[in-house]
Amino acid sequence: MDVLRTAVSALAFYDADEKNNDHDANVRKAIRLTSQIAMIVAAYDRIRKDKPLVEADRSLSHSGNFLLQLTGSKPSATAERALDIALILHADHELNASTFAARVTAATLSDMHSAITSAIGALKGPLHGGANEAVFRILETIDREKADPVEYVRNLLAQKKKVPGFGHRVYHTEDPRATHLRVMSRDLGRSSGQPQWYEMSEKIEQFVKAEKKLNANVDFYSASTYHLLGIDEDLFTPVFAVSRISGWAAHVIEQLDDNRLIRPRAEYLGPTYPNHYVAIGKR
Ligand code: COA
User: Fold this and answer.
1) CA-nearest residue, atom 26 of ligand 1
2) Measured in angstroms, how far is the CA atom of residue 171 from the centroid of ligand 1?
3) Residues of CATH 1.10.580.10 domain(s) within the chain?
């Protein structure tokens, strides 16, 4: 996410529409950023692993190209479709923290690249985009230590820790995105001969639901799904950005097309003068 934040900010200097903030220029920037963000994430992973960069293949879809440029091989139709669905499911979600950050930045009449950089900074935090990475680290630990998934999570709750991948500020019933990702995780696990990730996840989900009345959110089953697509866990949040760029950009364009500054008020609840104020000469 640090690489993406800096790279997207720097891309502004190379953008043909850098100084142009009108609707058509912003649509062009949005299309370019959608492609560039996917390519940056894939290229970063190749470079850090000392692997050669892979040229895009114009015959493939956006998700197919991302997997090709990340893994170096043409994805199966199932993998391409699975990532495509995951990208669609993560594309937009009204005023979540990163989209709100993008809109607040755009509303000062700043530019697309600044707004998307703000969004990436907000997405980076573990209460927003980082949760699926935390989910996979738990699944991996349970697998490595041959632990009981229910006992592992029971222990987390006993320590008053939050279980990543559960709960949502808006959804108090099942997150509809989790419904699709659960099926993808199960099917990809079966077809790749790695059913253990789904099986563990299912046990944890049933336990947390019974114990805390919390539903799995979008991050819970995207963790095992992304792992089964060959994506390293520290790229899960960047892959969220690969998808969410479409939603962010659409919100920025909508904001700039009909702008009003976003400026919430704060309500001061602390003690008031004269109760606690001591004039400077009397201190
Ligand atoms: N595991 C355990 N307990 C949880 C929990 C979780 N994942 N999510 C919420 N709770 C509990 C809280 O401890 C709190 O209990 P309390 O009232 O006894 O203190 C109660 O549920 C309300 O939690 P709160 O943090 O106020 O809910 P919220 O609406 O502000 O937060 C999230 C929503 C998403 C920030 C929160 O559920 C969370 O941190 N989830 C884990 C991270 C995650 O998956 N994020 C991705 C979201 S898509």
Assistant:
1) 169
2) 11
3) 2-127+234-257
Pocket test for ligand 1, best of 93, 95, 136, 168 (most atoms within 8 A of CB): 168
What's the CA-to-centroid distance between 61 and ligand 1, angstroms? Answer: 36
Residue 124 predicted with pLDDT over 80: yes
What's the predicted TM-score (pTM) here? 0.87
Positive or negative torsion for Cα 161, 163, 168, 174: negative
Percent of the chain with pLDDT over 90: 86
Catalytic residues: 168, 219
Which residues lie with the beta carbon below 6 Å from any ligand 1 atom? Answer: 127, 131, 162-169, 212, 214, 217-219
Pocket test of ligand 1: the residue of 127, 219, 236 to mutate, having most ligand atoms within 8 Å of its CB, is: 127
For the stretch 242-251, pLDDT in tens is 999 999 999 9
State the CATH architecture for 2-127+234-257: Orthogonal Bundle (1.10)
Which pLDDT value is given to residue 74?
95
- What topology does CATH give the domain 131-228? Cytochrome p450-Terp; domain 2 (1.10.230)
Rounded to the nearest angstrom, the distance between the alpha carbon of 5 and the centre of ligand 1 is: 27
**pLDDT digits 0-9 by tens, 1-24:** 999 999 999 999 999 999 999 999
